[in-house]
Amino acid sequence: MFPALEGPVPTTLRGNITMKWRTTLLTGTLSALLLAGCGGGGDNGGENGGGADADGGGSGEEFTIGVTYTTPESGATHIGMERFKELAEENSDGQVTVELYPNGQLYASERGAIEAVQAGNIEMTVTASAPVAGFNKNFAVLDLPFLFPDHETAYEALDGEFGQSLLDELPESGLRGLAYGETGMRQMTNSSHPIESPEDLEGLKIRTMENDVHINTFNTYGADASPFAFGELYSALQQNVYDAMENPINLIHQMNFFEVQDYLTISNHAYTATVAFMNDDFYTSMPEELQEVVSDAAKEAQDHQREVAQQQDEEGLEVVQDHMEINELTPEQKQAFIDAAEPVYESLAQEIGEDLVNEARSFNETE
């Protein structure tokens, strides 16, 4: 198998980026203590200390934000993060520096990236919402099969109170959710035959993201589903470790999966959001005005990223159709998949509660 790069980041790649904000905070704290001592004690110290704080407070602190993600430089996530870097650095007047680490160069798996952010080994990551469920189980609701029929329905859910309520739970896990982007609608690929019904998946070993809902869905369809590091997936498909996988078209194109898979089924079986989030301690260490700058930059960047992802889906389809046999599920075929997946909904409702599952489903209800 192909192990993901987990644990501490090699110093030759990461350097001392992680420690910059801690060093800044420690230096600021020691300076404040020294200034307080020089200003005298008692009530008089408040007046003198106020003057010192005004001159040497947090407004001049500098912060470096390292951002790691597994997708390539050509991908929508990287393009979105380039916009984030531009906005955060410009609108902070240089107090914020953003350093980007795409293509899994620090962590081959998204779970590894999340764990690194959680531990403070790097400040920020952008991952699919699926592995986030391993850190907050309520995020699993976003990965229910056929939950959102189109992008607009997904945006309505994620950009409103429902999506924000999920982000608001992340600080409990040491994370700070900033904004939703997307990898988009997921499609099925395999190296054996066209997929037209759940029965066509029986016996196929399929790679999924590290998310119980994804795994349970494809096991329910009769496949043999298991997670695997995205950064090592091409080699795994090439060496027939897996027969099949599922990803948005933009990633099928950018990662050249069409070279090692023969059949593409346009199923739109799941919409995958991405989540941009930071280490919560790092986020709260910044002055409020910089927190606002960073949050606003993330939201604007992720909106741009969504547009790019949809454009790349269209461009990618033009390329992969020359290399793969493509079929699109008819409404009747899609309904067979929806019906077969009902046990997945029931199982998740038992785990996270019917109310949350029903709230998510409500966005797909037609009048």
From TrEMBL:
Highest taxon listed in the record's lineage: Bacteria
A GO BP annotation: transmembrane transport
Keywords: Receptor, Signal, Transport
Keyword Lipid metabolism (UniProt): no
Gene Ontology CC entries for this record: outer membrane-bounded periplasmic space
NCBIfam families registered for this protein in UniProt: dctP, TRAP_S1
PANTHER family assigned: C4-DICARBOXYLATE-BINDING PROTEIN DCTB (PTHR33376:SF7), PTHR33376
Similarity-based family: Belongs to the bacterial solute-binding protein 7 family.
Protein name: Tripartite ATP-independent transporter solute receptor, DctP family
Source species of the chain: Alteribacillus iranensis
